[in-house]
Write a structure and sequence with these properties.
- The protein has about 300 residues and is α+β, with helices and mostly antiparallel strands.
- Helix 1 crosses helix 3, helix 5 packs across helix 7 and helix 8 packs antiparallel against helix 9.
- The longest helix is centred in the C-terminal third of the chain and has 41 residues.
- About 35% of the residues are buried.
Length: about 300
């Protein structure tokens, strides 16, 4: 229930903020004056909402991650494990050439970790309690290296830019194609569009959104391979392989919220065509890729 409430409130906040931005800068009046028949005006409208939503989500990502997972940021380490965790993150961050991120622990039984944040010098790295309890420290250091590689590579920003581009074209194409289909079906000639037009647009946004997510998820899988290689460089290839093998031994569901699961080191992998929409490649493929890298 908490996750559903967070999802609804976040989307309401994003839409409200974008509506205010459009009103302040006169974008809504301009697009209304030109009508959706003007492709240039429509593209501007689509870009504002496509990129706006993506970047607002990125700006809120650390706060959302902390709130939705109940992650506790370690300001003052309370025991030896927390001292080791903070020191290890600091060491790996220096090695990766990024600013010291916030370090947090969230109460998840599974072995997992994630990184998020707007920039490489203002990130958050969080690990589950299950990871600390069920992995050896050498394996944990490799997981941390993986997450800090995401930070060093700027993967959060790159994913946001890619999502913004996809969002923009989904909004744009759904309305252009919707106008064509509505006209072919003898729909309203009103430039604002009738109910039939809006129904067509909603369906097209769902279809185009699913297709666009193929591109986003393909990039997400590629960046996981790259983060594994970075984790191997920072902590050692054998440690990274050992950590992935340990992840493959766990059972049970991933408790990370869906919006954050793509940033975790591990997520469930589907079968058949469903794999095309998975954010992570199979662990066996990731291990095989690492074994092809010369020992570090």
């Amino acid at each position: 229930m908490r996750r559903i409430l967070l999802f609804v409130l976040t989307n309401i906040a994003v839409l409200a903020l974008l509506a205010i931005v459009c009103r302040i800068f006169g974008i809504d009046q301009w697009t209304a004056a030109h009508g959706y028949g003007g492709l240039g005006a429509l593209l501007v409208y689509a870009a504002v909402f496509g990129f706006g939503g993506a970047f607002i989500s990125l700006a809120m990502s650390k706060s959302i991650a902390k709130w939705s997972t109940g992650a506790r940021v370690i300001d003052q380490p309370q025991d030896e494990t927390e001292r080791w965790l903070v020191a290890t993150v600091q060491q790996l961050a220096n090695k990766a050439g990024v600013g010291m991120p916030e370090v947090a622990i969230y109460d998840g039984p599974e072995m997992n970790a994630f990184a998020t944040g707007m920039s490489r010098n203002h990130a958050l790295v969080a690990v589950s309690a299950g990871l600390l309890q069920n992995m050896a420290r050498d394996q944990i250091s490799a997981v941390l290296g993986h997450e800090l590689t995401h930070v060093a590579n700027g993967d959060m920003v790159t994913m946001t830019l890619l999502q913004g581009v996809m969002n923009t074209f989904v909004i744009f194409l759904a309305r252009v194609v919707g106008r064509i289909v509505d006209s072919a079906m003898g729909g309203s000639n009103n430039r604002g569009g009738g109910l039939g037009y809006f129904a067509i647009v909603i369906v097209l946004q769902i279809v185009f959104g699913l297709l666009a997510s193929l591109v986003v998820m393909a990039f997400s899988r590629w960046r996981e391979f790259r983060a594994d290689a970075g984790g191997a460089r920072l902590a050692g290839r054998d440690r990274m392989i050992s950590a992935l093998q340990r992840l493959g031994q766990q059972d049970g569901a991933n408790t990370l919220p869906k919006a954050i699961a793509a940033f975790g080191i591990s997520d469930r992998v589907g079968q058949g065509i469903a794999r095309l929409w998975m954010s992570h490649p199979p662990l066996e493929e990731r291990i095989a890729r690492l074994r092809g890298i010369a020992a570090l």
